[in-house]
Amino acid sequence: METNETKSLKELRKLSGRGCKILKPSHRKKGLYTVDIGVEGYLDLLFTVANLIKVSILALDSDESNCIQIPDSPSNIKNMLEIALKVLPCDEAGFLHQSRELLLRENENGTPEK
To answer: Cβ(32)–Cβ(63) under 8 Å?
Structure first.
């Protein structure tokens, strides 16, 4: 015979499987989760990061008395800037830098740049 607690737990698991899809367990560390941000490519990602930073700048420039609806706004701004830092494609930027250097060296050696 199933107890009410067991029935509730089964129901919660069923609901969780249908409704809790945004957070995904991290493969790197137990207890952490990841969230996907859909972007159309690196350019879109860079514009998204730039927009996060711009909104944070606007929030920092705003009058504190106008932020009654948003308690602890400095903490929220800090969180947005941390997200912006995490999604910056730094490794890819290194690849782009090295690729550009290679193209410049080839151009210096007589290979025309297109």
So the answer is: no
* Residue (of 111, 40, 53) closest to 86 by Cα position: 53
CB of 52 within 8 A of CB of 83?
yes
38-57 burial code (b ≥16 CB/10 A, e <16): eeeeeeebbebbeebeeebe
Other CB atoms within 10 A of residue 89 CB: 14
Determine the straight-line distance between the first and last CA of the chain, rounded to whole angstroms.
76
pLDDT tens track for 35-81? 888 889 888 888 888 888 888 888 887 766 555 666 777 788 888 88
The closest of 98, 94, 104, 86 to 35, measured between CA atoms, is 86
Per the structure block, which two tokens stand in for 101? 């250097």
